[in-house]
């Protein structure tokens, strides 16, 4: 089905000139940003603690450090909403770029060995350095993601004939399987499975200001880089020969692109754990709405990804209050049926 | 024509995949129930192994049992007829050591996980007793040459493990309901070991201790509420009214549970209720007993500004209970230690 779709996409691309739908895209971006603003406001107002809107307003603009409700808004809800938005954008754009560059419609950052790499690093931290501060855990998770991606690229490009999408996918699957086995082994030996499982479930509940301050420059810069590269991604998505024929230095673009993906996905994941499906689904939705031009797909993915993640996080705390439901699970629950529907529609 | 054929094939494929998943799920569920069928065929013939390297095991038990040296057959929670040896010397009863010690019996091996044992029982007599893994690998069980195995949950003898254990020694399985109520578990184990009198005496002694503590704290707990929190891996858990120290504080002493607990409908409560810092901000309890597994963690949640605005925290009424104490455990010994802690803290 995978190969079938790829061929189908390529056929599509050949049949019609690469044409986006700028009008739709602009509508989505402006409307999406407005919706995002509303959603973030809602995220600040909704939560386990019962806090009135007027109190929320006071907390933001007339902060009283003595009141716990003000701390709830400022120290928990605002960073959580901001973090969700950042991470949603990061994951969605990373997925869009992966799909464009590898021409694999099922590509997302998990395929690069990022999740598995981060998982191993976290397992090691939980098992051997249980006192590691959380902010450092984030750094280690990122390092692990980088190692995982490094392994995948190393193996993928070692083969004769260089790196191809298929090789990369296979290397990603193999390396992920290996790394996952290692982290599960560590989890079993040292009984840190539960800590790991929590991380794998994913969620924005624990995001704090220090994490945001580390996150936003990386994600911000990478998002801008992704936008600047979007034209090259569109060309790559037509096939490497086409891109090279048009005078593009494909190797350079692919390396830079993968670096952007690594930073976006790695830093997002280190903050919220492995959240599947945003990276896979959102770019598809964007492509469905605005056409195949990545100059529009990438910004739309960013906006839709943010919006989706913020909404999922609101869901995470409202489904079964006062308990938190893992946002990752909610996203998959909502995402899978939609995605199947979309896949069938596109297949027609 | 061709297309519709393909379409039909794909639909059929999807359907088949769904069926397969269903079948697998069913198979997985069905597989677990067989443990009970294999009967406890092993009889007292293993007894010979007992005396030789008995060492620390059950010196006290020997004299007690001498009066009543008969093999007995009891039915366990899985319906197995288990022949209990007349005078078991080398008992393995993981995570039930509290009850064994209460009855004056020293186990041949004690429960352990890779990063620890039941700390509070070491001083109570388990110091120096060899450890056995929490999941009872049969090889380890054999190496201790037990003459009686008591298991605290049917889930531990799944997948035909029961027949493996029962070939090593008679194996008695407690139901999860029995284990959840330490009084029932103590009585049951008393019955299995022929120490009903001791069990009864221990329960009476415990109730006596409860009355004493109540008397000492006379007037100090009226109208007050206490929250018992366990902090581990960036997450607070509220100890339920029926579990471990919760059963002692809320059940035996009759102290009011905190507002954020009573707000949760009883059927939604777990033994350890995960509670977000946001919800915790609404806590109005007068005292907080905190079991802190994040000690020394610089970015621990109890360092946050929000934690410091909780009324009980502001008032300095947070009592950190050492990890080596028994607040997360159940049993006569565990309960008495909890009572001692409360008396020490609130008694002045």
TrEMBL record, chain A:
Membrane topology: Multi-pass membrane protein
Regions crossing the membrane: 81-98, 110-129, 135-156, 168-190, 215-238, 259-282, 326-343
Localization (cell): Cell membrane
Gene3D superfamilies (UniProt xref): ABC transporter involved in vitamin B12 uptake, BtuC (1.10.3470.10)
Primary location class: membrane
Pfam family, one: FecCD
Domain of life, source organism: Bacteria
Keywords associated with the record: Cell membrane, Membrane, Transmembrane, Transmembrane helix, Transport
Record family assignment: Belongs to the binding-protein-dependent transport system permease family. FecCD subfamily.
Matches recorded under PANTHER family: FERRIC ENTEROBACTIN TRANSPORT SYSTEM PERMEASE PROTEIN, IRON(3+)-HYDROXAMATE IMPORT SYSTEM PERMEASE PROTEIN FHUB
Full protein name: Iron complex uptake ABC transporter, permease protein
Gene: txxe 996-fepD
Automatic annotation (TrEMBL), chain B:
Ranges of compositional bias, category Low complexity: 36-50
Keyword hit for Transcription regulation: no
Pfam short name (any one): Peripla_BP_2
Signal peptide range in chain numbering: 1-27
Keyword Membrane among record annotations: no
Subcellular location: Cell envelope
Primary location: other
Keywords: Signal, Transport
PROSITE patterns per UniProt: FE_B12_PBP, PROKAR_LIPOPROTEIN
Coiled-coil features, chain-numbered ranges: none
Region (Disordered): 36-69
InterPro entries, alphabetized: ABC_transptr_periplasmic_BD, Bact_iron-sidero_bind
Gene3D superfamilies linked to this entry: Nitrogenase molybdenum iron protein domain
Domain called Fe/B12 periplasmic-binding: residue spans: 88-348
SUPFAM superfamilies tied to this protein: Helical backbone' metal receptor (SSF53807)
Family, per entry: Belongs to the bacterial solute-binding protein 8 family.
Protein name as annotated: Periplasmic binding protein, ABC transporter, substrate-binding protein
The gene coding this protein: txxe 997
């Amino acid at each position: 089905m995978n190969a079938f779709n790829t061929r189908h996409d390529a056929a599509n691309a050949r049949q019609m000139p690469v044409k986006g739908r700028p009008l739709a895209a602009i509508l989505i971006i402006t409307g999406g940003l407005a919706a995002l603003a509303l959603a973030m406001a809602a995220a600040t107002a909704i939560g386990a603690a019962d806090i009135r809107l007027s109190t929320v307003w006071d907390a933001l603009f007339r902060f009283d450090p003595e009141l716990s409700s003000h701390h709830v808004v400022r120290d928990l809800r605002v960073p959580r909403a901001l973090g969700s938005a950042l991470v949603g954008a990061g994951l969605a754009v990373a997925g869009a770029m992966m799909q464009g560059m590898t021409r694999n419609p099922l590509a997302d950052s998990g395929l690069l060995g990022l999740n598995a790499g981060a998982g191993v690093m976290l397992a090691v931290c939980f098992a051997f350095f249980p006192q590691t501060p959380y902010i450092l855990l984030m750094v280690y998770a990122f390092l692990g993601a980088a190692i995982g991606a490094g392994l995948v690229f190393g193996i993928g490009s070692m083969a004769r004939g260089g790196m191809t999408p298929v090789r990369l996918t296979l290397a990603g699957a193999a390396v992920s399987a290996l790394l996952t086995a290692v982290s599960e082994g560590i989890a079993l030996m040292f009984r840190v499975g539960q800590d790991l499982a929590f991380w794998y479930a994913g969620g924005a509940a624990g995001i704090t200001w220090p994490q945001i301050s580390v996150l936003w420059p990386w994600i911000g810069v990478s998002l801008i880089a992704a936008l600047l590269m979007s034209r090259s991604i569109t060309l790559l998505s037509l096939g490497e020969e086409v891109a090279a024929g048009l005078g593009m230095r494909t190797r350079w673009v692919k390396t830079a692109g993968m670096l952007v993906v690594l930073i976006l996905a790695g830093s997002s994941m280190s903050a919220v754990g492995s959240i599947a499906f945003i990276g896979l689904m959102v770019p598809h939705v964007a492509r469905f709405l605005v056409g195949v031009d990545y100059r529009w797909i990438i910004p739309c993915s960013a906006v839709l990804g943010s919006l989706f993640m913020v909404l999922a996080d609101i869901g995470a705390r409202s489904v079964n209050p006062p308990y938190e439901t893992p946002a990752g699970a909610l996203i998959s629950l909502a995402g899978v049926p939609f995605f199947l529907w979309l896949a069938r529609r596109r297949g027609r | 024509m061709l297309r519709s054929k393909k379409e039909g094939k794909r639909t059929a494929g999807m359907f088949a995949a769904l069926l397969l998943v269903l079948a697998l799920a069913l198979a997985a569920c069905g597989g677990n129930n067989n443990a009970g069928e294999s009967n406890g065929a092993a009889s007292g013939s293993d007894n010979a192994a007992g005396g030789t390297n008995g060492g620390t095991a059950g010196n006290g038990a020997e004299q007690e049992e001498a009066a009543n040296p008969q093999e007995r057959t009891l039915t366990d929670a899985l319906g197995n007829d288990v022949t209990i040896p007349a005078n078991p010397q080398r008992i393995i009863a993981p995570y039930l050591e509290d009850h064994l010690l209460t009855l004056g019996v020293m186990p041949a091996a004690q429960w352990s996980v890779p990063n620890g044992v039941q700390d509070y029982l070491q001083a109570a007599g388990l110091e120096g007793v060899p450890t056995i893994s929490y999941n009872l690998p049969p090889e380890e069980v054999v190496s201790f040459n037990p003459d009686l195995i008591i298991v605290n949950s049917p889930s531990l003898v799944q997948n035909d493990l029961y027949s493996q254990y029962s070939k090593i020694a008679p194996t008695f399985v407690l139901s999860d309901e029995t284990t959840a109520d330490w009084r029932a578990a103590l009585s049951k184990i008393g019955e299995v070991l022929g120490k009903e009198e001791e069990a009864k005496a221990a329960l009476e002694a415990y109730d006596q201790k409860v009355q004493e503590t109540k008397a000492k704290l006379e007037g100090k707990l009226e109208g007050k509420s206490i929250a018992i929190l366990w902090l581990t891996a960036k997450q607070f858990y509220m100890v339920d009214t029926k579990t471990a120290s919760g059963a002692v504080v809320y059940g035996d002493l009759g102290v009011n549970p905190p507002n954020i607990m009573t707000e949760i409908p009883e059927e939604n409560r777990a033994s350890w209720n995960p509670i977000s810092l946001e919800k915790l901000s609404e806590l109005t309890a007068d005292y907080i007993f905190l079991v802190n597994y994040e000690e020394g963690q610089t970015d621990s949640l109890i360092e946050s500004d929000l934690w410091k605005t909780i009324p009980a925290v502001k008032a300095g009424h947070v009592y950190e209970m050492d990890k080596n104490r028994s607040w997360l455990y159940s049993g006569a010994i565990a309960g008495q230690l909890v009572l001692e802690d409360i008396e020490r803290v609130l008694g002045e």
